[in-house]
Structures are given as structure tokens and as C-alpha cells.
Amino acid sequence: MSLIASKPRDTGLSGLRHVGTAPIGRFFDMRLPSGIMHVFLGLAGLGVLVVTALIGLGIHHVYRGEMIRDAEVTATSVAEAILEQERDVLLKRAPGGAVSVALAIENAAAFDQRMRRLLHPFGIYKIKIYDMDARILYSTDATLIGRVDAGNAKLGEVLSAGRINSAVDKKGQIADLGGGVRFDADVVETYLPIQVAGRTIGSFEVYLDISRTYDQIGRVFALSIMIVGLVLTAAFSALYWPMRSGAARLDAIMEELHLLAATDPLTGILNRRSVIAQAQSAQAQSKACAGGAVVMIDIDHFKAVNDRLGHPSGDEVLRKVSAVLRSRLRQGDLIGRYGGEEFLVVLPGARLTEAAMVAERLRRAVAATDFGLAGLDRPVTVSVGISPWNRMAEDVLTAIGRADRGLYRAKADGRDCVRVITEAA
Known about the structure:
By secondary structure, the chain is of the alpha+beta class. Among the domains are: 86-209, PAS domain (Beta-Lactamase, 2-Layer Sandwich), CATH 3.30.450; 263-420, Reverse transcriptase/Diguanylate cyclase domain (Alpha-Beta Plaits, 2-Layer Sandwich), CATH 3.30.70.270. The protein has 11 helices and 12 strands. The chain has helices spanning 23-27, 33-85, 87-90, 105-119, 153-161, 211-262, 272-285, 302-309, 311-327, 352-367, 396-412, and strands at residues 91-93, 99-101, 124-131, 136-139, 165-175, 181-196, 199-209, 292-299, 334-339, 342-348, 382-388, 418-420. The protein has a 5-stranded antiparallel β-sheet with strand order 4-3-7-6-5, with helices on both faces. Strands 9-10-8-11-12 form a 5-stranded mixed β-sheet, with helices on both faces. Helix 2 (33-85) runs antiparallel to helix 6 and helix 8 (302-309) packs across helix 9 (311-327). The longest helix has 53 residues, at 33-85.
């Protein structure tokens, strides 16, 4: 890896922003307003789904409950009408005065005809009449008459407690009273007590076909879910967009503040704290390449420039020197103003011989620069100290200390030169 032919870079801020943070990590970084907004957007979307689902379940539960109640009302009305109209046929009074449910054989055929005419318009496709022994005295399905439904818990509850019991069931196939056949029908089965003088003497079981109503509920449910989802989405969107705009402005402000805190305001390169912090961060993350070098650079006779030409001229020298230095470094190298007229350069992955070549190139580039300052009676030069940096074995501050000793040796050797320190003194 030759540093002589390396591509110049534009700034000394490589890796300054969010070092080591993957794009997805930055996207959801809760330290950033935009990250908070992205988390908010995700939670809002999840909230819309959850709230919509809960509202949908609530709507479905309410409609289903109302549908069952309507079916109970219909079944109750039909049962009361049957009992009122067929009292003489269905009720039998014993010599002791006790009343029971019974249907004489000779009345069965005519009763069945009357039931079919009565029930068909109501969407009822089957009805059963039980006595207190759970025996089926009558059914529109004649094959069931005479059977005892002793294991029917719902029927047992009605006969014992006298309470109405209804439930929705899905039937694979039903034959209606008009002779037609329907498939996959939704049915409400309602058990109603037959009571005389407050005493239960039997039960009706009414099968009401609610397929059409159930389909309507499905459409209403889907439409309700869609409307609720759209309303919630619109509400969250109305909140999100202005918040997103504000978060973007805050992001820009935070980025600017971050740059101001991390850079030297005069030269625009990293300040001392930031260049050391980034070197330490790169050290912690780097596993593939343990080598590197640290370079300390000091402007020779800088105090004389300030004293003779004034501080504005000294500032101009600092700006131009920093620009020359960073323009001749690789992408990935770090440069910062270490303090006063000193600069720190960190060369990750560079071998010591390569680092020495880079340092010499930097020294010559500064010496060849025309600073354009009237009254400057000597070229601006720099002294350079270099130290290798074993990133796996030592902290960067240790390597900086060695490079600083190399810098003082360059000063002692006449300035405008490069000196290498490889071992601790």
C-alpha cells in the first residue's frame, strides 16, 4: 500500500459523523430526532394495526351479539305463536291437573303441514319440540321424532333452569322447509323453554338460518375496519409530517453542533479531543489490521510570525498549513489540530517506512507553499516526529507521546526535518 500515490482527500473529518454506526443503526438511533421519529413511525404503524384489530374484534363481537339476540327474539316470537296457536294440540292435561307436552299421532301430519307453512317465511329451516325427558316429540326432520337427546347439555340446562340458550353454528349442508338445499350455512340454534304457569314442561329447539345476515355483518366488519384504519392512518400522518419536519431541522442543528464541538473553528479540521477519540474508536473497531503510525507536526518559528506580522497573519498560516497537510493524506487517515501550532496525524494501517515517506512529503509540501504574506522573510517550515503504533497492544496516547519526543528531537536537530522514535525512552 503506497502512500506516495495515494488519493488526496478533501477534509480531515473522515469518520467524524457516527463512527461505526451502521445505516440501520443510525435510522433507529434514539439519540437522534430522526431516529426517534422513525421509531415513532414504526410504533404508530403497529398501533394502527393493533387498534384497528381491537376495534374490529369489538365491532364483530357487538354485531354477533346483536345478531344472536335478534335470532332469539325471532325464535321466541315464533315459539310463542306456535304455542298459542297449537295449545290444544301440544298441551295435555293429566287427570290430576298437571300439564305436559304431547302430540297425538293422529294430529302429527296436519301439525307438520301447519308448521312448514308458518316457519318457512321466517328463515327457520328446522324446529324440534322436546318433552321433559329430552324426547323429540316433533321435528320438521321426521327421522328424528322419538329419539331421546339425553346428552344435550344445552337442552338439559333449558329443561332444568328454564333459561333461553342460543349459539351460532356452521352447518355444512341444510335442507330448508321449501325443499331446497344450502351449503356452508350459518345457523343460530336457540333452545326455548315451554312454560305453563311458570313451570317448564318442555323445550323448543329452533334453527334459524342467518347466512345472509352473517354475510352482511362480514361486509360491515370489513368496511368498518377499513374506515377505522384510514382514520387512524390519517390522524397519525397529520401528526407525523410536522414532527418529521421538526426532527429534520433538529437533526441538522445537532449535526452542526456536533461538527462545531468536534472541529477546530480556525482550520476546520478535527480538534485535539476529537482526533484522539476517533483514533481510539478506530482502534477499538479494527481487528483486521493492527499496524499504524502517529505523526506530530509543529510549525517552526511560529511565535516569530505572530510577533512580527500579527495574529491575523498567524491564523492565515495555520489555515494554509492545515489545508496543505490534509490535502495530501489518504481517505481514512485522521488529522487534527493538537494545540497551538501543533498538528496530529494518525495513519491507520501504515508501516513505519510508509509513514516516514508521508511525513517527508508533508514537510516538503509545506516548505514549497507560497503563503503570500508581506513581510514574511523566511519560508514556513515544519518539524515532524513519527512513531509506530501497535493498535492491538497500546493506546494511541502512548504512540503520541513517542511521536512528540520525535518532534522535539527534530526541533533540536535544526527544525524542518523528520525524526522517528520507535521505542520508549
